[in-house]
Structure formats: C-alpha cells, structure tokens
Design brief:
290 residues, mainly alpha
Length: 290
Amino acid sequence: MTNRWVLAARVPTLPAAVAPVLVGTASAWRDGVAALLPFAVTLVAALAIQIGVNYANDLADAAKGADTEHRIGPLRAVSSGLISPDEMRVGMIVAFGIAALGGVYLAWYAGWVIIAIGVVSIIAALGYTNGPVPYGYRGLGEVFVFVFFGLVATVGTRYVFDMTAPAEVWVGGVVMGFLAAAILEANNIRDIDTDRDAGKRTLAVLLGRHRARHLFAATIAAAYVVVVLGSLSGLLPAMCLITLVVAPLSIPLIQTIYRTTEGPELIGVLKGAAMLQFLTALMLSLGMVF
C-alpha cells in the first residue's frame, strides 16, 4: 500500500519542481559556472516547496469541502481520513522547513536575493488555497504557477550559481511556466464539476469545460512556439530546437482532454502533462549545454 505521506505529496506532479531546476542549471553549465552542491540543494528545496504546496492544498481543499466522495481524482489524504488536519499541518511545516534550510545555504552561497525569493515563494504557496483571499479559488492559480514554478524557479536556479540571469534562462522560464500551468489546467478540468459545487472558482470553472480545453491546448502550444521563436531569434541556442522532438507527446494529452470527462483518463492527462514538462526541460537543457 502506498505510504500516506507519499500519496499526499502527489508524486506525479513533482516533475514540475525538477524541470525548471534542470533548465536553470543547464544555463549555468553552458557558461561554466554550475556546481554540484548548489544544484543538489536547489533541487531538494524546490521539491520541498512543491510537496509543501501539495500538503497545504490537501488541507485547505478538505476544510473547504472541495474534496468530496464525488471527486474523480486520486484519493486525498485529509478528506479521506488517512492524515488528520493537525498531522498535515505538521507535515506542511516540515516540508517548508526543509525548503527554508536549503534557502539558508543558498543565501550564504548566492546572497540575500535567494532569501527574498524563498520567502515570497512560500508566502505565495500558502496563499494559493489558504488565507483570507485564496487566489487559487479565484481563477488565478495559473498565474501563480506560471510565475513561481516557471519564471522564479528557473531564473532563481540560474541566479544561485553566479548571481546573473541571462536572456536564455528567462525564455526557458517562460517555457517552463506554460507547461507548469498546463499541469494545473489538466487538474482543474478534471475537477471542474466538484470544484464548481464547492464554490472553488478555478479558471476552468470560470471558463467552462469547452473553453478550458481550448486553453489547455493553447498553453502547451505556446510553450513550443516560445522555444522556436527563442531559438530562431538567438535568445536560446539554436540547438534548443531539439526540444520539438517531444512536442508530439502532447497530442494524445490534448485529444484525451477534448474526448472524455472520465476520471482515470483525465488523471492520465495530468501525469502525462507533468512528464511532458520534464522531458521538455531535459531536451531544452541538452540544447543549452551542447
């Protein structure tokens, strides 16, 4: 049986934390400034923030009634009783605490800007489904994901190594941001009916299923358009065009989103979108390095 904390960590979403770290590190490698220990600490901190966000969302959704027996996604730990609310709060604090410890080392290595990035990221993560104005319940989740799991994570990773942020890493951050947003869109399209019933006004709920499907397809397409434009303009190395070899993997995901409302298939789209981001990051990184 899957460990309850592993279940609550939502492992299929974790490539979203790894992907921008790969791209930011590849940019540093290209310029000869990458280092193993800062990379490892950044990766652990990024994963810890992602897990902390997932724990916080599990807790908040249970408290707000968004995770009911009618939900078609994977089992949620708090609403199902696997983890009590108090236990989940402790787990959330531990996850963000690990991220904070990593941030202390990175701040020593790269300066106070890293502390600012970490503090803002954790505050934003906690505000996603918690606090007086949970913006994840007001159609702004995609903006949060694009900014923090795209731009901030990618550019922040590069900044760690030599306190610079060249153009290529900003372009890479935009690509990562679009694909991270697509993961959230897949999740919200799957949960659109139960979210609406619970008063959770995600962007998918606000747009409706039909337009949300269009948004999912457009978001993925935009990521690869940015790769092409960046490579042709010189903002990215020309070799980054090899990233397009993984673009066809998005086709079955988009087809499934348009074809079905069934839970198991839509769960597969969510996992597939996360893997698409990881593979895109891997190819984009190889393009930068070689």
